[in-house]
Design goal:
The chain has a five-stranded mixed sheet with strand order 1-2-10-7-3. A three-stranded antiparallel sheet has the order 4-5-6. Strands 8-9 form a two-stranded antiparallel ribbon. The model has no long low-confidence stretch (mean pLDDT 92). The chain is globular. It has one domain (3-452): Cytochrome p450, CATH 1.10.630. The protein contains 18 helices and twelve strands. Strand 1 and strand 2 (34-38) form a beta hairpin. The longest helix has 30 residues, at 210-239. The protein has helices at residues 3-13, 41-46, 81-99, 102-114, 124-141, 149-158, 164-167, 175-191, 196-205, 210-239, 245-262, 267-271, 274-286, 326-329, 349-355, 380-397, 433-439, 441-452, and strands at 26-30, 34-38, 53-54, 59-60, 63-65, 160-162, 293-297, 301-307, 310-316, 321-324, 398-402, 425-430. Belongs to the cytochrome P450 family. InterPro entries: Cyt_P450 (IPR001128), Cyt_P450_sf (IPR036396).
Length: 454
């Protein structure tokens, strides 16, 4: 199969292009380039070994990160070795500071955006993107710097392109033209933010100059941070529409009790929402984004794993591309009962806690702690907090009607774990005004005023 045909086949079928039969976890595929696709849970976890597998610099599988969108700096997420450790250590320090403010910032982002939505918010997925940006960016750059979410979306759109092997299948679009002006806008906002000089000084403490620090911030915060959280926030919101009214009320009662007890969205309140957390973790299992990781074998190795037919092993050649499917690893029946069913209580209780070692997300096992010498996302806890907090606030105080029921087939490559069709809303309303006034009184008047206008 040629590269162009392989890419087109993958583009049409996405995850279904390499649906496993569970008798062999490693299969040869062409998805725009030849690679070995890994689908079993244990086998996928073996790809996390940084001594055996490395990232391909500036590449995510079939797409390439444009160097002119990162100031020429290789993003932390696609770097390796000592430079990766330095990049990761810097981002971990930045994220650690942000994490302290995330709950309050998340509540503010959700409620201040809702105050402008009205009864029928159009382009709803972009509105959730704005929530993601509003939750994260003030904790990095300070509250006085206001970024335009539309400019960030343009930057994200233009920041990647198809790798050369796949360009024969599709013609290059106009993303680059659209995205370039957004770079200047974002850089100007970053460099005039109240915390920019603090961030540059922090970069210097890790041995980076201003350009290197700015380049890491530009891509890691905007692409991996803002866009990454938004991509997972959309399906989390949509999945609420797939569970019963009784289940949604159960989630609402848990969140409301925690919010009232702690006087708002705090880290302590989030810790007392195990049902909300289990719901979000099940979303990340059922429709993961990203749904794959692409790596290259650093040396010949033998990977051992287990399947229903017994112990297996596979020989990996040095330089071989290994494409690990989190989508199928999270549907492995050897570790997840009824994997095709959305079961939001799956991660509750002792058994649910034990299952988390099989939950592969954020480029690692859920139970892994981000460290300089692994590839677990440094913003794992921040991302989970933003998604959990946003869903808690939305489900606790508001009601909505979607234009159509959300459906996931695993065939839509461009949707990245989101429902096959764009999530749009017929109507949105404040459903529990007294509860909102009791927990978030400072937002009540603005939201009730907007609600009454429609």
């Amino acid at each position: 199969m040629g590269n162009a045909f392989g890419y087109l086949h993958w583009l049409k079928s996405n995850n279904q292009a390499f649906a496993p039969d569970r008798t062999e976890d490693f299969v040869e595929k062409n998805i725009g380039f030849p690679c070995r696709v890994v689908t079993g849970n244990k086998a996928v976890q073996s790809v996390f070994d940084i001594d055996l597998f490395k990232k391909e610099e500036f590449y995510f599988g079939q797409i390439e990160v444009r160097k002119d969108f990162t100031e020429g700096v290789c993003p932390s997420i696609t770097s390796n070795g000592k430079i990766h450790e330095r990049n990761k250590a810097l981002m971990m320090d930045i994220i650690a500071e942000a994490y302290k403010e995330i709950p309050t910032s998340t509540a503010n982002a959700v409620l201040s955006n809702i105050a402008r939505w009205g009864r029928r918010p159009t382009k709803f997925e972009s509105k959730l993107f704005a929530v993601s940006a509003g939750a994260l960016l003030p904790t990095i750059f300070g509250k006085s710097t206001h970024f335009n979410a539309e400019e960030i979306e343009l930057y994200i759109t233009g920041s990647t392109e198809l790798r050369p092997e796949c360009l024969a299948a599709l013609s290059e679009g106009n993303e680059l033209v659209e995205g370039r002006p957004a770079i200047a806008y974002i850089l100007e906002k970053m460099k005039t933010s109240e915390r920019y000089h603090q961030l540059i000084d922090l970069g210097k403490s890790h041995g980076f100059g201003e350009a290197e620090t700015t380049g890491q911030l530009l891509f890691t915060i905007m692409f991996n941070g803002v866009a990454g959280m938004a991509v997972n926030l959309v399906p989390s919101f949509a999945r609420l529409d797939t569970i019963s009214a009784e289940d949604r009320e159960e989630l609402r009662k848990e969140a409301l009790a925690a919010l009232k007890k702690h006087g708002g969205l705090t880290r302590e309140a989030l810790a007392e929402m195990p049902k909300i957390e289990s719901f979000v973790l099940e979303v990340l299992r059922a429709c993961p984004a990203p749904d794959f990781w692409s790596t290259i074998a650093t040396r010949p190795t033998t990977v051992k794993y287990s399947t229903e037919s017994g112990p297996q092993e596979v020989e990996i050649k040095e330089g071989e591309r290994v494409y690990a499917s989190s989508y199928w690893a999270l549907r492995d029946p050897a570790v997840f009962n009824k994997p095709d069913n959305f079961m939001w209580r799956r991660f509750l209780g002792p058994e649910g806690k034990a299952r988390r070692e099989h939950h592969v997300t954020f480029h690692g096992r859920l139970i892994d702690t981000p460290a300089a010498n692994n590839h677990m996302c440094p913003g794992k806890d921040v991302g989970l907090s933003v998604i959990k907090g946003s869903i808690a606030v939305l489900n606790t105080f508001f009601g909505w009607e979607l234009e159509e029921p959300p459906v996931w087939t695993g065939t839509k490559a461009a949707r990245l774990g989101q429902p096959d069709n764009e999530v749009n809303i017929n109507s949105f309303w404040l459903q529990h005004p007294n509860d909102l006034k009791a927990v978030f009184p400072s937002y009540f008047d603005d939201i009730i005023d907007v609600s009454c206008q429609f």
